[in-house]
Amino acid sequence: RFNTLEAQPKDPIFALVDLYQKDENPNKINISVGAYRDENGNPYVLPVVKKAKQILLNDPNANHEYNPMTGVDSFCKNAAKVILGKDSPALIEDRCATIQTVAGTGALKIACEFLKKTKNTPIYISNPTWANHKAIIEFSGLEWKEYSYWCQEKRNLNIDALLEDMMNAPDNSTFLLHACAHNPTGTDPTKEEWKKICEVMKKKNHFPFFDCAYQGFASGSLENDAWAIRYFLEQGFEAIVCQSFSKNMGLYSERAGYIHVIVEPSSNASEIARNIRSNLSSITRSILSNAPNFAVRIVDIILSDPQLYNEWIEQMNIMSGRIQKMRKLTRDKLVELKTPGTWDHIQKQIGMFSFTGLTVKQVECLIEKFSIYMTKNGRMSVAGLTEKNVDYFCKSVDWVVRN
Ligand code: LMR
Question: What domains, with CATH codes, occur in the chain?
Answer without folding.
Answer: 14-44+321-402 (3.90.1150.10), 66-304 (3.40.640.10)
